Amino acid sequence: MTRFTLHDAQSAPEGSKPLLEKSQKGFGMIPGLHAVMAESPQVLEGYQRLHQLVLDSSFNNDEKTVVWQTINVENACHYCVPAHTGIAKMMEVSDDIINALRDETPLPSDKLEALRTFTLAVMKKQGNVGQEDLDAFLGAGYDNRQVLEVILVLSQKVMSNYINHIAETPVDEPFKKFAWRNSR
What we know:
The chain has nine helices and no strands. It has helices spanning about 15-25, 30-35, 40-55, 60-75, 80-90, 95-105, 110-125, 130-140, 145-165.
């Protein structure tokens, strides 16, 4: 069982209290991930800033979901896959996309598949992608901005996936219905 406290507005360090209030306001609850991160106000603030930057990126909702879930599934995050399934549904991403990402089956468009393939290449090659990887991604209709934004999303997901693994963050009640198990 986890040795990390799931903080609320009363138990959190002073610097995290306004950040948890922001989470409560934005999500209608304090997500378990944020409750764990609250142990370090800097970590929670960094995560919230990265999340906002991802939301403000050039990716549309389908593309954000592809990058988020590709990373979550590859990292086998027990918390983030169900959470981002719920988030994707709120963002009106189609079930075809959601299920293909969760099940690691083909996506409904070549462009989205190129995004997943490039995201996995960046992860697996630790950023040392080759010209062939870049050409395939750019040839699918993306540009250098999106190359960099994949890395932005990866930075956000490294924080959440790794913290959830270490803290064994329990899945939030609204997302339990989207439970996911790694099929590998």
